[in-house]
Amino acid sequence: MNEVPASVLVEANLSEILSEVRQQEHVDATFPKDLLSFPEQMAQVQEWIEHAGEYGIAYESLVSLLERFPFKLSSQRSVKLLEVGLLMRFKTERPEDDRFDSRS
């Protein structure tokens, strides 16, 4: 049995989560004017995933967006988000998430 490398799984999961979030354009109305717009945020996360390979930044951005705005994730995508967090061994770099960081 061939095991999928973690980086491939992380990228695929992040891409699927982003795809589901991106479809919820109505959430754009809840974004403050001082933030990047919804399309700009989605493009930025896509860039981090697909071109820069910055999975940690993409993950943190998605988690932050999901916590701050009324996005809905299907149970399948929620499990994928959990898988990414477990593989990367952290929630985010924010001080309030230190207790979830198992890297040290």
What's the helix and strand layout?
Layout: H1 6-22, H2 38-50, H3 55-68, H4 75-88
Largest sheet: none
Please trace the helix and strand order, writing H or E for each element. Answer: HHHH
Structural class: mainly alpha
Considering DSSP H and I runs of 4 or more, what fraction of the residues is helical?
Answer: 55-70%
* Beta fraction: under 5%
Question: Helical stretch count?
Answer: 4
In whole angstroms, the N-to-C terminal distance is: 31 Å
Low-confidence stretches: none
Would you count the extended β strands for me?
0
Q: Would you tell me the overall average pLDDT?
A: 88
- Our Rg estimate from Cα atoms comes to 14 Å
Shape, principal axes of CA atoms: globular
Structure report:
- The N and C termini lie far apart (31 Å).
- The chain contains four helices and no strands.
- It is globular.
- It has 104 residues and is mainly α.
- It has helices spanning 6-22, 38-50, 55-68, 75-88.
Quick description:
With 104 residues, the protein is an all-alpha fold.
State the main characteristics.
104 residues; mainly alpha
